[in-house]
Amino acid sequence: MISSVNLSIYLPARWKKIIEETTKRLFKSLQQKIKTIEQTISSVETLINDDTISSSSLSDSDEDIQIVNAKNKKQPTTTTKPKNDRVGKPGGGVLGAVKPHLECREMMNRTIHKNEIVAVQIEMQLYKSMLISSIYVPPTAKIGMNIFQDLYNINNNCIIVGDRNATLYEIGLANTDARGKQLQELLNESLIEYVDDDSTTFEKE
Fold first, then answer.
1. What is the largest CA-CA distance in the chain?
2. How far apart are CA 8 and CA 18, in angstroms?
3. Which of 123, 130, 132, 126 lies closest to 64, judged by CA?
4. Helices (H), 58-177
5. In this model, does residue 161 exceed pLDDT 80?
6. Which residues contact 109 (CB under 8 A, 6 or more apart)?
7. What does pTM read for this prediction?
8. Residues 178, 189, 187, 143: is their CA dihedral positive or negative?
9. What is the CA radius of gyration of the chain?
């Protein structure tokens, strides 16, 4: 019987090379798998830490959201929904929906000269608070210019969305109407900045 110590003496050189290459390949594969496992463990630990921090930092904001819902005599749902319903007519109005883990406060909810407005202030951990406002201006009404100043006074870090039924040639529309001229005036005063991402809220046949 040949001993294991002297086995290498009796192996052809070609076999020895095959064994060495196979061993190196298996060892390299094993190292890669170990590295993958280490990265997975590290990722899981990071997620666990982030969830712990998030749960701690959001506990107060969850309570605030529940208070808002309690005022409306409703059970907490997936969103907080400050809204301005149109009075005396079916449909209409504006709505702002905020996810419950975000700390928010309703800052404005009113109708001024047929302009329907709702504004919510979102508190952020890394940045200062931001005001999100939705405004609807009917085709028969003028834009309430003072509304923009009021929003600016609440928080000059503000995003204003909605439908103002305005056309303005300077932003690529066919012409400029009366409400468009009002928007142009606000732009000229640097009270607002126009943001256009080429998206639309409707489709034409």
1. 105
2. 13
3. 123
4. 59-71, 145-154
5. yes
6. 82, 83, 84, 117, 118, 119
7. 0.52
8. negative
9. 32
